Amino acid sequence: LISIFIPNYWFFVFLRFVVGVFIAGASSTTYAYLGEFVSIRHRPVVINFTSMFVALAMTYVPAVAWLLLSMDWSMDITDDFTFRPWRLLTIFNILPGFISILIMTRLPDSPRILMTIRKYDEAFKATDWIAKLNTGKTLAELNVHKMYDESPMETDKLIQTSKSFGQIMKQMWVDTKPLFRKPHLTNFVVCCTVMCGVFFVNSGMGLWYPAIQNKLGSVDEDTRMSICQVIDASIDQQASNGTDTVCDDTITRKSYIDSITFGLVYLGAYFVLGSIINPLGRKLTIILLLVISAICGIILHWLMEPIAIVVSFILFVMLPGLCVSILSGAVVDLVPTQLRGKAVCICLMLGRSGSVIGSNIIGVLLDSYCGITFGVFYAIVLVCAGLTILLPI
């Protein structure tokens, strides 16, 4: 909210970076938190349907942006600060998060987490809240009057007594170290690698979706060219138009429509995924999604029909993204309660690093080596599909 009123560009960028850091931390723990309240049998479906709100956000943001950025007005607050529609857009983007904060204040903490840190009374209250919600009865009415841990772990006895930075970092390492030891090491490393791969393709290529879509839209419908031929043709056209650069910050209506359509397709895909994930199982579902994605990426080399190119490209980018929620739910099941939050955070952190690497690779290589660039991306998808076979999910 503060960044809306910042006139200095670099300070604004810094504050938006801080926003991203804190949002990434909060979003990483969502899957672990939700998984604590759902039985193992229903966990994949529940986490998948929760991820539909990501698709809703992908639709909400461009829809609101279309409404607000189409306006042309400005309000001079000071000599150095002018309030324009894009600043108002930031407020609308904050609203869902603010509503989420209000909802979260009414929810209890995970009873299992509270048990591991020996807050038995709070764990009892949280479980009582769940019992009322599920059965309409309190724990007392169900003849449960006390909760205790029958087999406390040694790691649960580690109580943070020092507030110094060094002690906190040491405690974080002690708490995280079991993830890099047997029996969790292999599964955790595989999950992190696959997560990095799916983000590499989904977010890395997805960031360039509007630009590539604009290049495809610039070609006449009667012209038959593959996606790389279209990209090469657009580069040649730019070169033939001269070297003068004109700054045009207007956003076309087609860009909004493409982004909204992309979000709606994601939303529909999550509905379909929710109906097949339990019958097929998580492992087969991830492998199926990644194999179909790779096939769509491979055939892009030869497709000439504009509509077929767009459909294949969307599936190539979108299907790996659907694996994020499934894989996050799998991480929750593969590690014990006290490690779940850290495991999901580390896994998603490495995943987001994959998106940064992927987007930069496209920026450097796509125009000069289009075919090779797409080949690298669908090869990584196939590698991730092969690694998923190793996971006991």
From TrEMBL:
Q: Sorted alphabetically, which PROSITE patterns does this protein's record hold?
A: MFS
Q: What lineage is this protein's organism placed in?
A: Eukaryota, Metazoa, Ecdysozoa, Arthropoda, Hexapoda
Q: Which organism is it from?
A: Haematobia irritans (Horn fly)
Q: How does it sit in the membrane?
A: Multi-pass membrane protein
**GO CC terms:** membrane
Q: Which InterPro entries match?
A: MFS, MFS_dom, MFS_trans_sf
Membrane is among the record's keywords: yes
Major facilitator superfamily (MFS) profile domain location, by residue? 1-393
Q: What is this protein called?
A: Putative transporter
